[in-house]
Amino acid sequence: MLLNMTDQMTALEIVRRANMPEPYKIIELMGLTNEMLLDVPAYEANNATINVGLQRTIKKMGEHRIYNQGVGSVATQTKIIQDRIAMMAEYSRVDAKMVEHSGNKAAARQSEAVAIIKGMGLTQAETLIYGNGNDPAEFDGLFVRRNKLNNKNVLDAGGNSNDLDMTSVYLVAVGPDLFHLLYPKGSKSVGITRSDLDLQHVPQEDNPKKTLPMFVEYFEAQYGLTIKEPQAVIRLCNIQKDIAPDKLVDLIIDASYELPQGASTYAMYSNKTIQKKVDKAARDKNNVAYTTTDPWGRPITNIRDLRCRRMDVISHNEEKVSA
Question: Model pTM?
Answer without folding.
Answer: 0.89
